[in-house]
């Protein structure tokens, strides 16, 4: 199957495009956001990487040439965090940006920290003949850009500020477009329950992150959230999701989280060791 068939996109407006992997039918299917700038384009998250995303961007006509002489613009792929559903395609790009706390994990291709979890039934059409989910691994890639809190990604006419928002994972980031009041939130917050029981999740950090999200709303800095999964939503919903997390992060929640976390670690370890012996 060609890259052009594998993905689909929709214009969100204002130079932003929403891309999805058409044949990955799973709650883990992540949103891929393409953001066009005057001097640089950005891909926020990259999906599983089962077909070439750069090739798709090119053949679907999303990569416009710069007006001056038709030179192609730089294209930077940034991961909101390195979980497999967001980072699987990073290795396909020349320019790759990741938060510094997750650089080692992606540079090693650490399929425990990337929480690689894929079954044959979720991939409803084979990307290549004989493809099997059990062989899927996030491929190692050395990031060219190491991000930290406060960094600004300049696309020319558009600036995105990096906010380090640990909790879901240790190197999770959100990207804030202050002019347009748009927050690219990754898995830190989407319209569903927040996941804080994975390897390198941290409930205390997550509470602090949610406090920052609430502050963004209070200060009127966010109007639209473009999340890592499911649909986009507005400031009011963002406020509710963040404040619900804080009020539910009491002792009971912590205890059930502990149980789930141990179970998840066992499963992931088992998956990982199976992978290394095959
Ligand atoms: Zn995640
Ligand atoms: Zn995700």
Model description:
A hairpin with a 4-residue loop joins strand 10 (173-177) and strand 11 (182-186). This protein has a single domain (3-277), classed as Ribonuclease Z/Hydroxyacylglutathione hydrolase-like (Metallo-beta-lactamase, Chain A). Mean pLDDT is 91; it is low at 272-278. It is α/β, with parallel strands linked by helices. It contains seven helices and 13 strands. The strands form two sheets. A seven-stranded mixed sheet has the order 1-2-3-4-5-6-7. A six-stranded mixed sheet has the order 8-9-10-11-12-13. One zinc ion (ZN) binds next to loops.
Summarize the structure.
This protein is α/β, with parallel strands linked by helices.
CATH level-1 class: Alpha Beta
Question: Which class of secondary structure composition applies to the elements?
Answer: alpha/beta
Give the CATH topology: Metallo-beta-lactamase, Chain A
Write down the Rg.
18 Å
Looking across the biggest beta sheet, what order are the strands in?
A: 1-2-3-4-5-6-7
Termini distance?
A: 26 Å
Task: Estimate what percentage of residues fall within beta strands.
Answer: 15-25%
The largest β sheet comes out as: 7 strands, mixed
Give the integer mean of the pLDDT values.
91
Order of helices and strands: HEEEEHEHEHEEEEEHEEHH
Number of strands: 13
The set of bound ligands, ions and cofactors reads: zinc ion
């Amino acid at each position: 199957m060609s890259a052009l068939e594998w993905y689909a996109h929709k214009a969100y407006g204002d130079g932003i495009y929403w891309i999805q992997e058409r044949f990955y039918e799973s709650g883990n299917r992540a949103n891929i956001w393409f953001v066009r700038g005057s001097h640089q384009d950005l891909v926020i998250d990259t999906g599983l990487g089962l077909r070439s995303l750069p090739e798709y961007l090119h053949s679907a006509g999303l990569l416009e040439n710069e007006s001056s002489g038709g030179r192609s613009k730089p294209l930077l792929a940034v991961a909101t965090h390195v979980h497999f559903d967001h980072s699987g395609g990073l290795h396909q790009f020349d320019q790759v940006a990741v938060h510094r706390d997750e650089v080692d994990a992606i540079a090693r291709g650490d399929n425990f920290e990337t929480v690689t979890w894929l079954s044959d039934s979720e991939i409803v059409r084979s990307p290549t003949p004989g493809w099997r989910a059990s062989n899927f691994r996030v491929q190692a890639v050395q990031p060219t850009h190491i991000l930290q809190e406060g960094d600004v990604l300049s696309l020319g006419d558009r600036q995105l500020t990096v906010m380090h928002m640990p909790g879901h994972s240790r190197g999770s980031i959100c990207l804030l477009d202050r002019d347009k009041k748009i927050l690219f939130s990754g898995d830190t917050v989407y319209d569903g329950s927040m996941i804080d029981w994975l390897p390198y999740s941290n409930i205390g950090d997550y509470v602090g992150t949610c406090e920052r999200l609430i502050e963004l709303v209070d200060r009127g800095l966010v109007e639209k959230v473009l999340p890592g999964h499911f649909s986009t939503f507005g400031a009011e919903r963002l406020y509710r999701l963040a404040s619900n997390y804080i009020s539910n992060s009491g002792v009971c929640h912590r205890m059930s989280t502990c149980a789930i976390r141990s179970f998840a670690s066992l499963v992931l370890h088992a998956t990982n060791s199976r992978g290394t012996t095959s």
